[in-house]
Amino acid sequence: MTEQPLWQPAPEQIASTNMTRFAREAALRWGQNFEDYADLHRWSVEAPEEFWLNVWDWTGVIGAGDTEPVVVDRQQMPGARWFPNTRLNFAQNLLRRQDAALALIFQAEDKVTRSISFAELYAQVARLADGLKQAGVVPGDRVCGFMPNMPETVAAMLASASVGAVWSSCSPDFGVQGVLDRFGQISPKVLFSADGYWYNGKTHDSLEKLREITNGLPSLEHTVVVPLISDKPELSSNPGARLITDFETDATQIDFESLPFDHPLYIMYSSGTTGVPKCIVHGAGGSLLKHLVEQQLHVDLRPNDRLFYFTTCGWMMWNWLVSGLASGATVVLYDGSPFFPDGNVVFDLVTREQVGVLGTSAKYIDAIAKAGLRPRETHDLSHVRTILSTGSPLIAESFDYIYDAVSDTACLSSISGGTDIMGCFIGGNPNLPVRRGEIQCPILGMQIEVWNDEGAKVPDGEKGELVCVNAFPSMPIGFWDDPEDSKYKAAYFEKFPGVWCHGDYISVTEHGGIVVFGRSDAVLNPGGVRIGTAEIYRQAERVEQVLESLVIGQQWKGDVRVVLFVRLREGEELDDALRAKICSEIRQNTTPRHVPAKVIQVEDIPRTKSGKIVELAVRKIVHGEPVLNREALANPEALDLFANLPELDV
After folding, report:
1. Environment class of residue 204 by beta-carbon count within 10 Å: exposed (0-12), middle (13-18) or buried (19+)?
2. Beta bridge partners of 335
């Protein structure tokens, strides 16, 4: 018997969505008949020229030139070229509003709250853009941000994009080497940094780190400091640095550079947990179109909506969030701990600012559930119509928790994609039901399939590799310093030439939803049976005493055995009874193959800056292999907890 949906849009809701209006107008324009979302999606991948041209026109992209042809060499992946005869400017598309409505709302823990209008944002970008030009920045130069998630970061990025420079950012909690591992590869000309930031109630100074960073970047010509933790930062330890007010000019208008569709906009980074991060270059036009599709159609974002995503400037969700300006939405920025002074701080902000679209991570949802928070009983969340979750698979019990304790009227959309594509392969849909444990649908324009290791499509319900078999505009334009595209091709096209293999282990359900079982490179193979790590996490973390877990496959006597590490609630100890309880929960709800051979208690679990646990790095430590880039981790010291464990020798 099929489970009933947890949420179902009412007919009048469906009738009023952007998705419905887009489908209706596209059907008229192109002589189509879309009975349902599956029909619309099929058209979007079978007729990409019609679909992406429709997106360009429907969203009102500001550009010049001929939109025909839409794509050249569309069978080539990589190699397809989109809108080759057009020119645009990414920043111009995000700064189309210049009125008194709020563009940005900012909160830094309990220290700072301020807002900035669209007119004020435009004015600051004008001053910064002219400052960049006066500093000699030309199209293609790199401008970097070592910045908290604050309005000046958005303004600096937009100023960079307006002059055709390439923006790249790290959050200020990165260590010096982690920053140099990233920015050192791309030779920036200008670096923006705040003087510090707050986290968990503590003040962190950034200026000492900044001195070491600037010393390690010989290409740097200008360092710009933004006050946050003090009104007038002391810059004597950073010779040559100047305050943002001294860098800005008195310009009032922006002369937007008109650039090719695929002109580089962002350099993003792979997690870097197994080596120096790869530098992924994204184009302006593809990033813009991808975000417009996801935000206006899949999230149903409208002008004046309040859009919030809990993120830092080191995660691609920051880039995604800021694109909300292109839809005329108010973007809500939060910097700091989501648990200071307690777990209500995010919901205090969402209530006060009447946020309509609330985005966070699966780990955060799990954490507030474990903390026993019931925000719907303590806060007015009536404005929240969409809740987004990403970063790791959202387990079925977290779906239950959201509808029980947070909101029973919001569309809960788990989304999945990545830094690699500046967006999602699979995600939400305001017109479709929400079913527990499932992502609602493939994103428009993305022809995803599930393949086995031999490259054959598997039937619905079977697990396999997430692949995308069609080219799309937000594919990277390349990797930095990769003239033959060898790193790029090795990253996504080595397993199945000409087909994007993303590295996620998934299945498609009977109603077209998608379940993600974890990263395929972390898939366990005990006795040759493939097991997704998320299948084990879901069961282990149902046990009340378990806060979070991490599972690896350990090479053992010619095979692989499953080893589960658990972090327990404070005061709890892993004894034989609790170990048996965890194994029983896993066995009863999966298969005997899923039951770990070892369950080991650890004090902490290593994770990236964006909160993803790092199974591969732990696997390396357990097998005595070096982890080359600890700076990529939020808590690198946690890796040492997994080295030379006597329990793994028997």
Report:
1. middle
2. 108
Structure confidence by residue, pLDDT tens digits, 56-104 = 999 999 999 999 999 999 999 999 999 999 999 999 999 999 999 999 9
* DSSP-assigned letter for residue 154: H
Among 473, 412, 419, smallest CA distance to 446 is for: 473
Query: Phi/psi zone of residue 418: left (φ > 0), alpha (ψ -120 to 50 degrees), beta?
Result: left
Can you tell me the distance from the alpha carbon of 158 to that of 325, in angstroms, rounded to the nearest whole number? Answer: 11
Provide the angle, in degrees to the nearest 10, between the axes of the packed helices 48-59 and 37-46: 110
Q: How far is CA 531 from the centre of its chain?
A: 25
In contact, 545 and 513? CB cutoff 8 Å: no
Q: Residue 392 has what pLDDT?
A: 85
Q: Which of 55, 96, 50, 516 is nearest to 295 (CA)?
A: 55
590 by Cβ neighbours in 10 Å (0-12 / 13-18 / 19+) ranks as middle
What does DSSP assign to residue 60? T
| Helical residues (DSSP H) of 240-283, grouped into ranges | 244-247
Domains along the chain with CATH numbers = 11-79 (no CATH), 90-514 (3.40.50.12780), 523-649 (3.30.300.30)
Query: What is the rounded CA–CA span in Å between residue 5 and residue 28?
Result: 31
**Cβ(150)–Cβ(193) below 8 Å:** no
How many helices (H) and strands (E) are present in the chain, helices listed first?
20, 32
Helices (H), 237-283: 244-247
pLDDT at 184 over 70: yes
Are 506 and 450 in contact by the 8 Å Cβ rule? The answer is yes
Q: Can you list the alpha helix ranges (DSSP code H) found in 567-638?
A: 576-589, 615-622
What DSSP letter does each residue of 430-486 carry, written as one string?
TTS-B-TT-B-EEPTT--EEEE-TTS-BPPTT--EEEEE-S--TTS-SEETT-TT-H
pLDDT digit string, tens, across residues 382-395: 999 999 999 888 99
Q: What's the Cα-to-Cα distance from 490 to each of 60, 487, 501, rounded to whole Å?
A: 36, 5, 10
Separation between Cα atoms, residue 267 and residue 481, nearest integer Å: 12
- Look at the block and give the residue holding tokens 């991060």: 277
Task: Tell the residue number behind the tokens 């084990």, with chain if given.
Answer: 536
- Flag whether the pTM goes above 0.85: yes
Contact of 308 with 345, CB cutoff 8 Å: no
pLDDT cut 70: percent of the chain above it: 99
| Angle of helix 207-215 versus helix 176-186 axis, rounded to 10 | 40
Residue 616, phi-psi category: left (phi > 0), alpha (psi -120 to 50), beta (remainder): alpha
**What is the percentage of the chain residues whose pLDDT exceeds 90?**
86
Strand-pair category, 330-335 with 102-108: parallel
Asked if the peptide bond before residue 606 counts as cis, ω within 30 degrees of 0, the response is no
Q: How confident is the model at residue 283 (pLDDT cuts 50, 70, 90)?
A: very high
CA distance 477 to 483: 11
Model confidence at 306: pLDDT above 50:
yes
> What is the Cα gyration radius of the chain?
24
| Structure confidence at residue 363 (pLDDT) | 87
Q: Shortest CA distance to 296 belongs to which of 643, 84, 18, 591? A: 18
Distance CA 534, CA 2 (A): 22
